[in-house]
Amino acid sequence: MNGSFEIRTAYVFGFAGNFWLLFLGISVLLWISPSFAEQGVSNLKATVLGTVAFLIGLCLRFSFHGVEVDAESGRLREFTSILGYKTGEWKPLTDLTKLRLSSYSTSSWNTPNGTSPTFRSTSTIYTITLVSEKPLTDYSISLTNRKQALHTVQALARLLHLPVEEEGIA
């Protein structure tokens, strides 16, 4: 391992990140439309609109939030990556003593018409906390996938040479 760890936590555009393939399809249709459209579609207009749709699709797919840990330099950062360009402020890792993996379940009702709930949804949130000796300097990463949370906490434990404490894992 090279002394650093990175994990994606969420898409920047939320659920809209799933529409990237639709925009790529639209761009292809716009690019080929002058060859079969008889309405006098300008080649330049079709190319520009296709390129814009293509770029929107790429931005939806390759824009995400994440956490990066650099063990060699003793720092971590929350970042936003847009098309591979990462922004975020590095913070020092202070006297870490252990990693804590915990989980909790939350449930909610779906009320599409605003008056009567139709179904209940239950989800489990897994939280990895980097616990330090100093108060109020803990840092946490929340994930919704159990397998990903276990893999992440094990990778961080190996990288940072810290013990893992599991608390109420479902």
From TrEMBL:
This is PH domain-containing protein. It comes from the Bacteria. The keyword Transmembrane helix applies. The lineage of its organism: Bacteria, Pseudomonadati, Bacteroidota, Cytophagia, Cytophagales. Keywords: Membrane, Transmembrane, Transmembrane helix. The chain crosses the membrane at residues 12-32, 44-64.
